[in-house]
Each structure stands twice: as C-alpha cells, then as structure tokens.
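User: Can you recover a sequence for this backbone? Please restate the input before giving your answer.

Assistant: Of course. Working from this structure:
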C-alpha cells in the first residue's frame, strides 16, 4: 500500500499542477482506474483495517470517480479532503505532504 500511496500522491500532484496551469487536457484521467481496486492492496499495518477504514476508502474512491468524470477544481478539492480525512484517523504521518496538495 505504501507504493500505491506514493503513486497516488504523484498523480494528484500532477493534477494539481495541471489545474493551476490550465493544462488539464494534458492529464489522462484514466489514472483513477489504477486505484479503484486499491482495497486489495495490503496495508503494512493490519491494525489499519477495520470498518471505519473501509468507509473512508469507499468515500475516497467515490470522490476519485467523480473527479475522473469531471476534473474540476471542486472535485479535486473534495478528493484531497477525502485523503486527509482517512489520514487524520489512521495515518497522520504523511499529512504534511498531503496538505501540499491542497489548492
Ligand atoms: C482509507 C484510508 C486512506 C486514504 C483514503 C488515503 N490514504 Fe494515504 N495512507 C493510508 C495509510 C493507512 C497509509 C500508511 C501505509 C500503510 O499502512 O501501508 C498511507 C500512506 C500514505 C503516504 C505515505 C507513503 C510512503 O511514502 O510511505 C502518502 C504520501 C499518502 N498515503 C498519500 C495519500 C493521498 C495523496 C491520498 C488521496 C489521493 C491518500 N493517501 C488517501 C491510508 C489512506
């Protein structure tokens, strides 16, 4: 899951730059598909998996899907907020990095 998280972080950073630079058309929103089955990615810490975690995960995947259909600023922000919500509850360490994604 570490690898997946690093990869989603990079994809989101590219998207942020595209939104800022008005070059959205250069982003292939298909990247979202890579993460839809992310549930199967094993977390390094099994304590991270419980019902609450899955609820955050589902919520996040839905935001990602909405953003894929309509890559607007609002949908981007909603997706980043869903990253932050799960991280506040389960994995606060990377929050500093994730907050760099906020616009
Ligand atoms: C449902 C919970 C959840 C969501 C949603 C989530 N994460 Fe994570 N993330 C984790 C957990 C848990 C870890 C710790 C790694 C592990 O346990 O395997 C992590 C780790 C990370 C890391 C550190 C990886 C490393 O280098 O070790 C980054 C960066 C990260 N997430 C970014 C994001 C971004 C960006 C998003 C949204 C696009 C996001 N995360 C959405 C749970 C989540």
């Amino acid at each position: 899951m570490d690898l997946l998280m690093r990869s989603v972080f990079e994809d989101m950073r590219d998207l942020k730059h595209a939104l800022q630079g008005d070059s959205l058309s250069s982003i292939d929103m298909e990247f979202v598909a890579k993460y839809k089955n992310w549930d199967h990615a094993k977390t390094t810490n099994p304590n991270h998996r419980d019902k609450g975690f899955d609820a955050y995960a589902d919520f996040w995947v839905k935001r990602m899907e909405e953003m894929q259909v309509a890559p607007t600023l609002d949908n981007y922000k909603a997706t980043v907020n869903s990253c932050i919500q799960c991280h506040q509850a389960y994995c606060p360490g990377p929050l500093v990095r994730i907050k760099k994604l906020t616009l």
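That completes the design. The pocket of heme C is lined by residues 1-2, 5-6, 8-9, 12, 43-45, 48, 53, 56-57, 60, 79, 82-83, 86-87, 90-91, 94, 97-98, 101 (CB under 6 Å).
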